[in-house]
Write a structure and sequence with these properties.
With 149 residues, this protein is α/β, with parallel strands linked by helices. Helix content is 39%, strand content 35%. It has four helices and seven strands. The longest helix has 16 residues. The radius of gyration is 15 Å and the shape is globular.
């Protein structure tokens, strides 16, 4: 059951460089929305994509069914499939024949905590394809990243 829909996006000017994130959370039953954004002076696009989801889920005051709508394959695959293997392997991933620590470990571990609280469903959309909420999240994320230029 979906209680809220969480639209997210992240942006970065350079990678690494100044970045921003934005989310729009919609409660379909009431029509209420929560819109937030933020950024960092020196970050990566993947970190901002993760932050958008973290900030959105962190804004919830009680456990919810959440549909996460994102254009980030990295975030959605990480949450839906990669995370279980990373945890089983001590938050490490295979890179060739070697084990490497998962990139953005601090954020993935925070998402893991939030995943234990909420029931998550994932919807992948194409970025920059005219999806209204995705376009707005992107606009907010880019605006936040420009504050550091």
């Amino acid at each position: 059951m979906t209680d809220v829909i969480l639209y997210t996006d992240g942006a970065c000017s350079g990678n690494p460089g100044p970045g921003g994130w934005g989310f729009i959370m919609v409660h379909p039953a009431s029509g209420k929305q929560l819109v937030q954004s933020g950024g960092e002076a020196q970050t990566t696009n993947n970190r901002m994509e993760l932050m958008a989801v973290i900030e959105g889920l962190s804004a919830l005051k009680h456990p919810c069914g959440v549909e996460i709508v994102s254009d980030s394959t990295y975030v959605l695959n990480g949450l839906s499939s990669w995370m279980a293997s990373w945890k089983k392997n001590g938050w490490r991933r295979r890179e060739g024949k070697a084990w490497k620590e998962v990139k953005n470990l601090d954020l993935w571990q925070r998402l893991d905590e939030l995943k234990q609280i909420h029931s998550l469903k994932f919807t992948k959309i194409k970025g920059h394809a005219g999806h209204p909420q995705n376009e707005e999240c992107d606009r907010m994320a880019v605006e936040e990243s420009r504050k550091f230029l």
